[in-house]
Amino acid sequence: MVPETPSIEQEIDQLCTTARACYARGWVPATSGNFSVREGNRIFITPTGLDKGTLAPADLLAIDLEGRALAGSGRPSAETSLHTVIYRERVHAKAILHVHTIWNTLLSGKFVSTGHVPLHGYELLKGLSGVASHDHTEHVPIIENTQEYAELAEHLRDVLRSNRDAHGVLLSRHGLYTWGESVAEARRHLEALEFLFEVEGRRLFSHQD
Amino acid sequence: MVPETPSIEQEIDQLCTTARACYARGWVPATSGNFSVREGNRIFITPTGLDKGTLAPADLLAIDLEGRALAGSGRPSAETSLHTVIYRERVHAKAILHVHTIWNTLLSGKFVSTGHVPLHGYELLKGLSGVASHDHTEHVPIIENTQEYAELAEHLRDVLRSNRDAHGVLLSRHGLYTWGESVAEARRHLEALEFLFEVEGRRLFSHQD
Amino acid sequence: MVPETPSIEQEIDQLCTTARACYARGWVPATSGNFSVREGNRIFITPTGLDKGTLAPADLLAIDLEGRALAGSGRPSAETSLHTVIYRERVHAKAILHVHTIWNTLLSGKFVSTGHVPLHGYELLKGLSGVASHDHTEHVPIIENTQEYAELAEHLRDVLRSNRDAHGVLLSRHGLYTWGESVAEARRHLEALEFLFEVEGRRLFSHQD
Amino acid sequence: MVPETPSIEQEIDQLCTTARACYARGWVPATSGNFSVREGNRIFITPTGLDKGTLAPADLLAIDLEGRALAGSGRPSAETSLHTVIYRERVHAKAILHVHTIWNTLLSGKFVSTGHVPLHGYELLKGLSGVASHDHTEHVPIIENTQEYAELAEHLRDVLRSNRDAHGVLLSRHGLYTWGESVAEARRHLEALEFLFEVEGRRLFSHQD
User: Fold this and answer.
1) B147 at the C interface (CB within 8 A)?
2) Which residues in chain A touch residue B191, judged by CB atoms under 8 angstroms apart?
3) D194 close contact with C: CB closer than 8 A
4) Taking CB atoms and an 8 Å limit, are A121 and D109 in contact across chains?
5) CB distance A183 to A11 below 8 Å
6) A20 is a domain residue
7) Three-point CA angle A58, A59, A61, nearest 5°
8) pLDDT at A208
9) C-alpha count within 13 angstroms, C-beta hemisphere, residue C26
10) Least reliable range by pLDDT among A72-76, C39-43, D141-145
């Protein structure tokens, strides 16, 4: 049962389903977050300011890899440039998910000075493509948050180049970017990383150790 | 894709959808909370003692800006006067949401003596209209809770006048009032503030920092 | 809009809806919990060992106030005697809800030696019938858990007699019993008490105070 | 109302319903977890890498008690051998559930050096078959996690033989295996154990006690 490569229409459907599921879990409150898929040089991406709880395929904008509008009537998000950077630096990436969760906000704030969140020893690390053992340390890089998006895009590019194995990048007290070779893989990375952030968060913010 | 101004019927529908969603999240337990929209001098508001999990447009009462009944058969909530104060002091407000959540109860209790909950440095602050950067401090004013509603309405009026930029007001160990120029904007403020209360609550009530 | 007194069929429907909602919230895991309504001397009650996630009216047993079976084919729960004690001691009670939640388990364990959980200063206390102010202290009595149900029924009777104003009773590390003059009132008490247990639990189990 | 023994088709349906419910609760993130039922020498089991949120009967593989494929086109999970060990050592077991939750991950990490999680004094222990009182101590054995599945299967066999009364086994920082004589019983054990892990987790990771 080798699955066929999904069509771009199927991927767009999956992206919208994933976005709505993220909203239901409280991971993209207050119209935050953004989501995209790529086919060749075309990117289909959520516009700014849209409630993700009711996202439908017709809401997406089509842009090119330089972020120029191809189709759709919404306004691109300021964070569109972060998507195009990821697609250029991760040539196999076909889908990008960006979410704001309680635990990624807390951990990216706590670890910003050390530059990454370390995750080690958990079976769920195997939810990340290429990781075959719990005995692996995933360093999730953290970029200091800023409203200067050109600067942010440059930092993200540098971080992606110096962390070839990273499956996601955090913006401090802001959120997570993760990606995959399909929407399904990107979602698997998202679910694995957010599970691990919550486990580590509850452990580190408790009285125990 | 500039959205048209929604009709009052659409806004009432959205208000009921929002109230039911709040119930599902545990934000208006035990028939608590109340919700309203305004069109001109008419306010459509939830009556007292109603389960918000099944709220429908026909349940709403119509009142005027002085709180006098225009239509509908339920009994106005004692907190109706707080809605009319907000509509008079915030002339652009068209919708008001009032919820009781675990984290707004905890934080409004913890900070009542300092008079506000400070929120700083989070990207989600941009979910509040007019806030363009995470590098912003939102002070959410806290009013001491009381059952003297005339007194409470006066305090609320004073707090709204002396905190022109506030996007919401807390009653101590009671709940949050927030508003917007549409139900969608009020809901965005609600989701942003409650996310930030939970993040700050988990950080402050933990062993860390 | 004075609501008519609901029929027993409507109350049974509401009871099943409430039980399924409690299951969805994780409040009656592993077939735990039980629920009943009364009409005159007849009690309709959940049988033992039933998954509450799919509870339907036909699942209920009819018993009398002494706990003798009148109709239905399931086996009465060992806790049926606690329901009959409550109906005898609280003559206006028409519905009883018994749930096992994370926070009622934690608080009933923490406070068992002092004999009650104190709840004070919260607006949500007004979700309890007859409570008109947040400036009220609700003492929720705690009975030491035991598998001797005759003994437990006796303790419960004594506690109900010496705590005339109580809206619920906890069994230590076991769960909450609450009741009302209708299913809707019992559910309001349940939602108010569980909200307050979670708030107090998070406050008391944290590093803060 | 003695329930008839469910058919294998009904059990497979129940297994898929249970798996989807586990996904909805966040207990099998990122395609983790696996689930099986047995009829005689045939085991129907989830293949590797499948999202459990949409699991359907046609997705299951049929294998024998030695783990050899009988039917179905997916690839067996590396953990299939753990299922066959449980079915051989617990001859009455007809269903096995394996989940990764926040609290079983935290507790299996905290207690791995002592070899088990102790659970004592909770009414919910009666959700475990054969346990008739809260005054019972359940020791949930913990096996050190490893990617050597032959070794893991051997350890599991030894732990099952030296803990005849255990209702579940934890793999450290990995997850829980539990089972039952039907899917319903296995699910009851799962819900009871996970409730108790969360209660104990919140108690032990807090500032209290």
Assistant:
1) yes
2) 29-30
3) yes
4) yes
5) yes
6) yes
7) 100
8) 56
9) 20
10) A72-76
CA gap A61, A72 in Å, rounded? 5
Nearest to C179 by CA among C10, C45, C4: C45
Over residues B24-65, the pLDDT tens digits come to 999 999 999 999 999 999 999 999 999 999 999 999 999 999
What's residue A76's pLDDT?
82
pLDDT at B3 over 60: no
**Beta carbons of A1 and D73 less than 8 angstroms apart:** yes
Hey, what are C117's tokens? Answer: 């959980």
Q: Rounded distance, CA D149 to CA A132, Å?
A: 13
C-alpha dihedral, D116 to D122 to D123 to D125, nearest 10°: 0
Query: Residue C14's CB: how many other CB atoms inside 10 A?
Result: 18
Gyration radius of chain B's alpha carbons: 16
Closest CA to C9 of C58, C52, C54: C58
Instruction: Decide if B180 is inside a domain.
Output: yes
Q: What residues pair up with C45 in beta bridges, in sequence order?
A: C36, C61
Q: How many domains does chain C have?
A: 1
Domain that holds residue B169: 8-205
Alpha-carbon gap, residue D15 to C36, rounded angstroms: 30
Domain CATH number, residue C76:
3.40.225.10
Q: Which chains touch A (3 or more CB pairs under 8 A)?
A: B, D
pLDDT tens-digit map of C106-120: 999 999 999 999 999
Q: How far apart are CA A146 and CA A78, in angstroms?
A: 12
Residue spans of beta strands (DSSP E) within C22-174 = 34-39, 42-45, 61-64, 69-71, 95-99, 116-120, 137-143, 168-171
Is B188 an interface residue toward A (CB < 8 Å)?
A: yes
Q: What is the ipTM score, two decimals?
A: 0.95
Per cent of chain C over pLDDT 70 is: 97
Tokens of A117: 């969140």
The H or E element that residue A131 is part of is none
In degrees rounded to 5, what are phi and psi of residue A42?
A: -100, 135
Share of residues in chain C with pLDDT > 90 (%): 89
User: Which residues does A2 contact at the CB level (< 8 Å), separation at least 6?
Assistant: none
Mean pLDDT value across chain C: 95
> Following DSSP, what letter does each residue of D73-107 receive, concatenated?
SSPBPTTHHHHHHHHHHSTT--EEEEE--HHHHHH
Q: Given D51, D105, D204, which is nearest A199 (Cβ)?
A: D105
Nearest CB among B110, B174, B204 relative to C134 is that of B174
What letters, b where the CB count within 10 A reaches 16 and e where it falls short, cover B11-29?
bbbbbbebbbbbbeebbbb
Tokens of C34: 């039980």
Within-domain flag for D2: no
Measured between CA atoms, how close is D130 to chain A, in angstroms? Answer: 31
- Identity (one letter) of the amino acid at C170? L
Q: Does B168 touch chain A (CB under 8 A)?
A: no
pLDDT at B208: 57
Maximum Cα interatomic distance, chain D, rounded to a whole number of Å = 53
What pLDDT, on the 0 to 100 scale, is given for residue A20?
98
Both tokens of D26, joined, read 């966040």
Within a domain: C20: yes
CA distance between the termini of chain C: 44
SS3 B81: helix
Q: Inform me whether the C-beta atom of residue C132 falls under 8 Å from chain B C-beta atoms.
A: yes
The answer to whether B123 and B199 have CB atoms below 8 angstroms apart is: no
Question: For residue D183, which amino acid is it?
Answer: V
* Beta carbons of B179 and B95 less than 8 angstroms apart: yes
Q: Which class for B161: exposed (0-12), middle (13-18), buried (19 or more C-beta within 10 A)?
A: exposed
